[in-house]
Amino acid sequence: MSYARQMLDTYPRGGTVESDLLAATIDALNDCAQACNADNAADLSEPSVADMVTCIRLCLDCTDICAATAAVIGRLTSDDPRVTRPLLEACAAICRSCGDECERHAPHHAHCRICAEACRSCERACLALLEALA
Which of 71, 55, 43, 33 is nearest to 103 (CA)? Predict the structure, then answer.
């Protein structure tokens, strides 16, 4: 059981979103942030680093957006859709862009393949949570 799920189980008041879905989204966000951060470091170690500039920039953006989204939705301090919806939408968008770019490099770089998988998983999780919030 993830730490996100364990923390949700201890929260004293119920939320409007099913706990399993919320925990899965938080886990996907954290996994994606970690994968993008690691991919960024691996990209910087490639001999053709100039070819990786777009991937590096997207991974940096994806790391920051996923981490911020996980922090906000993980606090459970607000069910305000004016806050959570734009964060989840931005996260799905950057995960799509970063995943697309990483897939371009995946045939030659295993770290990009793994990052693309994490981005796709996170995008799906954010979209599923958005749908549940509708």
Answer: 55
Give the residue carrying structure tokens 């045939």: 107
Residue with tokens 């799906």: 124
Domains of the chain: 16-133 (1.20.1270.360)
What's the length of the chain?
134
For residue 100, give Cα distances in angstroms to 44, 49, 85, 92. Answer: 19, 18, 23, 12
Strand segments, DSSP code E, in the chain are none
Per-residue pLDDT reduced to its tens digit, 57-102: 999 999 999 999 999 998 865 567 888 999 999 999 999 999 999 9
For the whole prediction, is pTM greater than 0.85? yes
